[in-house]
Amino acid sequence: MTRLYGASETSVGLESYMKIKRHDNPGSNNSTAGRQEVAPKPTLDDQVLDRALRPSNFDEYVGQDKIKENLKILIGAAKKRKEPIEHLLLHGPSGLGKTTLAYIIAKELGANLKITSGTALEKAGDVGSILTGLSDGDILFIDEVHRLNKAVEEVIYPAMENFKLDIVIGKGNSAKTLQIDLPRFTLIAATTKISMLSSPFRSRFGANLRLDFYNQGDIERIVNRSAKLLSIDTDKEAVSIISQASRFTPRVANRLLKRVRDYSQMTDEETSISALAAKKALAMLEIDDRGLEKTDREIMHAIADKFAGGPVGLKSIAASISEEEGTIEDVYEPYLLRIGLIARTPKGRVITAQGLKHLGIKNTLL
Ligand SMILES: Nc1ncnc2c1ncn2[C@@H]1O[C@H](COP(=O)(O)OP(=O)(O)O)[C@@H](O)[C@H]1O
Ligand SMILES: [Mg+2]
């Protein structure tokens, strides 16, 4: 693995992590190319762009001021006490900057960062060997922590709380439990689905930080910053158009910027991105002015047309548009809910008056 930002990063089980990712998202690369999806579903291509554009310190990290403030205090206090920081839980929709924060925290602390994922840790032994390989002050980052299974969670609980690891040696009657001391590490966990974490697990974190969608101004700053890093000339209006279509999500903003650049290089003589080129590129990608893509509109149409406006369960929506429930819930829905085009009720999802208006459907349903 490459070293980033001075924090030495060892990727634990990255290979199996990638394998599982691919398995989770069959043909995700193909579907990105074929269906031109831009919602913040992370693909392998993104990892390259993410890495190239990832802010390396708090000053470069745009927005999320409250979280930055909190983290600076936590980090400052820990440094003063010469102690590792408390375990941290970062949650919020995909592409908002959780992984980036983990890198920045490690860099600020001058700590080693080890990265793994809830899907890569399958057995108690997997996490045991990672934990015993850590040193005092190291940071273990577990992405998609809601995917951890029970066996692994049971190892992590005492490790987080007492820095102890129970090891069972031998089998059957002769089995013995041995307790070993672990280094004083910090766990930073990230999840898009905090509701899937048990409350005892949640309560073991010293701080629980929720990342929210960015505002238009922040996204424009991110697009400008990325354009500079990628040596892309843009005009103000083009930046504003790209930002408006970015689902208030940095990963999407970066991805759109790159797509629009590719489009203008292919079609125009010019090297800079004009407002017209941005509009044309978005139209070609079937992304509308609010950043909705085909799948978003399919979800909304399913609720509006097939299920009479709802309420309808996620399962039925997923079946009717042949998309995975998890993808709808993690990738598409958060933004649609956020901008009020659909709503969640105890009985299921409903389309809102605004949602109908966006689809150009006359409001006879509500
Ligand atoms: N606050 C931010 N300022 C600038 N760029 C950001 C910010 N947050 C995220 N990004 C960009 O978006 C990409 C995706 O962020 P990442 O941390 O991987 O999101 P997550 O882990 O929440 O899915 C990063 O590589 C970075 O380029
Ligand atoms: Mg991430």
Automatic annotation (TrEMBL):
Keyword list, A-Z: ATP-binding, Cytoplasm, DNA damage, DNA recombination, DNA repair, DNA-binding, Helicase, Hydrolase, Nucleotide-binding
Residue span of region Disordered: 21-43
Localisation: Cytoplasm
Residues at which ATP binds: 53-54, 95, 98-100, 204, 214, 251
Region listing for Head domain (RuvB-H), in residue ranges: 289-366
Protein name: Holliday junction branch migration complex subunit RuvB
Residues that hold Mg(2+) according to the record: 99
Catalysis: reaction(s): ATP + H2O = ADP + phosphate + H(+)
Domain AAA+ ATPase: 84-213
Quaternary structure (record): Homohexamer. Forms an RuvA(8)-RuvB(12)-Holliday junction (HJ) complex. HJ DNA is sandwiched between 2 RuvA tetramers; dsDNA enters through RuvA and exits via RuvB. An RuvB hexamer assembles on each DNA strand where it exits the tetramer. Each RuvB hexamer is contacted by two RuvA subunits (via domain III) on 2 adjacent RuvB subunits; this complex drives branch migration. In the full resolvosome a probable DNA-RuvA(4)-RuvB(12)-RuvC(2) complex forms which resolves the HJ.
Keyword Hydrolase: yes
EC numbers, comma separated: 3.6.4.-
Gene Ontology CC terms, in alphabetical order: cytoplasm; Holliday junction resolvase complex
Stated role: The RuvA-RuvB-RuvC complex processes Holliday junction (HJ) DNA during genetic recombination and DNA repair, while the RuvA-RuvB complex plays an important role in the rescue of blocked DNA replication forks via replication fork reversal (RFR). RuvA specifically binds to HJ cruciform DNA, conferring on it an open structure. The RuvB hexamer acts as an ATP-dependent pump, pulling dsDNA into and through the RuvAB complex. RuvB forms 2 homohexamers on either side of HJ DNA bound by 1 or 2 RuvA tetramers; 4 subunits per hexamer contact DNA at a time.
